[in-house]
TrEMBL record:
This is HTH gntR-type domain-containing protein. In the C-terminal section; belongs to the class-I pyridoxal-phosphate-dependent aminotransferase family. Keywords: DNA-binding, Pyridoxal phosphate, Transcription, Transcription regulation. The keyword Chaperone does not apply. InterPro entries: Aminotransferase_I/II_large, HTH_trans_reg/aminotransferase, PyrdxlP-dep_Trfase, PyrdxlP-dep_Trfase_major, PyrdxlP-dep_Trfase_small, Tscrpt_reg_HTH_GntR, WH-like_DNA-bd_sf, WH_DNA-bd_sf. The keyword Heme does not apply. The lineage of its organism: Bacteria, Bacillati, Actinomycetota, Actinomycetes, Pseudonocardiales.
Length: 488
């Protein structure tokens, strides 16, 4: 059996926070590789990158990778032959079943493998729940049905109270909507997964902005779709040209408080985007998960406001406006789309948690006040982060966000993925730009959220400045830390 090439980008992402520990770097790297091998995430005969290639991507000396590979070879986890390369030993996991590897996006690894002692700037999530949420749960508990009510608690389409409340909210915003046009999901991520299941098949084209939300990219990769990109500013002529050139089945757009840049597409351009999609018979996803977090008043209407023919599927969620632990999202679409999506939803989980949905419905009348308070606090934290970056890292550049949760930062030189490895060894996890670009562009970028407290942001920027000094001294490449250095 011949070795199977394993892309260096995937391996670096799988390694995650490998260096955030105490001990020689080569031992930390060997330990993480061993974990990946023994868990089956690196299957037998996976051919690992060359020493120098992996060292450059991890911003370490080549000797670190050589020593780690040799340690695993001695433990019979790797086979290694000069001139032929290094690969996972075939007997390590004899019962492994071939198939696509699990996600290695650094965004999800930060959720799956949290680590103490590391400031988690790779995840953009709001702080803890507002007091209104506890009050909403009290109302939901009081409204629980009795034992003889006949309510079995399964609502694959969503609890009627929440569907009606969401439909009413859209109608009040100028987008006439009935409850039959709303499906409640377990967060915005499940909403994207269900839409991908409905509209995308292997080899079909989906158009996305570059950069974009990495969770959407993982959904489309899981569907085996072909991902093509359009510039994130969504200029109508460029968007229409991309539709004509790529002929996608679906386009995923995040036009309000765009993740990661915090920019918003004006109303006139939105109308042109929908008209272009209509002309090319392309379905649109309008991701409005961050839409409530505009710094200066309300943003423009969603794409559905310009959609007379039902091309737009709108995705919303409470997770960014209220709390990440409130795993309640929704899809607003045509009644026919919702009926089909509900069948997939029923297969997945028979419906989201009923108590949480009743609490969300009770919270909905307070959502505007909660969102306004959140946006005001996020703006203060945005300004604080921007000031700290200008003071401690004046070479770094960024545009101020108009809303959302993140700054999109450009490094003056070097590679964001390599720098993220050095930052990790200084106690900060950041998301490199390549993780948000389907074309693996944006290599000189970082996504830095401003959701932490001002004190935490100040400390994180101080650590980033120390990491940048180490990275810059090494010429923006390997050997930023020696093979035998101790890391905290």
């Amino acid at each position: 059996m011949e070795p199977i090439p394993w892309p260096v980008d995937r391996l670096v992402a799988q390694l995650g926070r490998w260096s955030a520990g105490r001990g020689p770097l080569y031992l930390l790297l060997a330990l993480r590789l061993r974990q990946l091998i023994e868990s089956g995430q690196l299957p037998p005969m996976a051919a690992l990158p060359a020493d120098r290639t992996l060292a450059e991507r991890l911003a370490v000396g080549r000797g670190t990778v050589v020593a780690a590979y040799d340690r695993l070879r001695q433990d019979h986890k790797l086979d290694r032959h000069q001139g032929r390369g290094t690969w996972v030993a075939p007997a390590v996991l004899s019962g492994a079943r071939p198939g696509p590897p699990p996600t290695a996006n650094p965004l999800f690894l930060n959720y799956l493998e949290p680590m103490s002692g590391v400031r988690p700037l790779a995840c953009a999530a709001p702080p803890g729940p507002p007091p209104e949420l506890a009050a909403a749960y009290q109302l939901a508990l009081a409204a629980l049905p009795g034992e003889d009510s006949g309510d079995i608690g399964y609502h694959p389409l969503g609890h009627p109270r929440l569907r009606e409340a969401l439909a009413r909210r859209y109608t009040e915003q100028g987008v006439p909507t009935g409850p039959e046009q709303v499906l409640v999901t377990t967060g915005g991520q499940q909403a994207l997964a269900l839409i991908g299941r409905l509209l995308l098949g292997p080899g079909e084209v989906v158009l996305v902005q570059a950069p974009t939300y990495p969770g959407a990219l993982e959904v489309f990769r899981e569907a085996a779709a072909l991902i093509r990109t359009v510039p994130r500013d969504l200029a109508p002529t460029g968007f229409a040209s991309a539709l004509s050139r790529h002929r996608p089945r679906l386009a995923y757009l995040n036009p309000t408080n765009h993740n990661p840049t915090g920019t918003t597409v004006p109303a006139l351009a939105r109308r042109a985007l929908v008209e272009a999609a209509d002309a090319h018979e392309v379905r649109l996803i309008d991701d409005e998960v961050l839409a409530e977090l505009t710094f200066d008043g309300a943003g423009p209407p969603g794409l559905a406001a310009f959609d007379p023919h039902g091309r737009v599927l709108t995705v919303g969620s409470f997770s960014k406006t209220v709390w990440g632990g409130l795993r309640t999202g929704w899809i607003r679409a045509t009644e026919g789309d919702i009926a089909q999506l509900a069948r997939f939803k029923a297969i997945h989980d028979k419906g989201s948690a009923a108590l949480e949905q009743v609490a969300a419905a009770a919270l909905l009348p307070e959502l505007d006040a909660v969102a306004a308070r959140r946006a005001a606090e996020l703006r203060r934290r945005h300004d604080h982060l921007a000031g700290e970056l200008r003071t401690l890292l004046p070479e770094w550049s960024f545009e101020q966000a108009g809303g959302g949760l993140c700054l999109w930062v450009r490094l003056p030189r070097g590679d964001g993925s390599a720098f993220a490895q050095v930052a990790l060894r200084h106690g900060v996890a950041v998301l490199p730009g390549a993780a948000l670009d389907a074309d693996r562009g944006c290599a000189d970028r970082l996504r830095i959220p401003f959701t932490a407290t001002p004190q935490e942001l100040s400390e994180a920027v101080r650590c980033l400045a120390e990491a940048w000094a180490a990275y810059d001294r090494a010429g923006g490449s390997a050997a930023a830390v020696s093979v035998h250095a101790l890391v905290v």
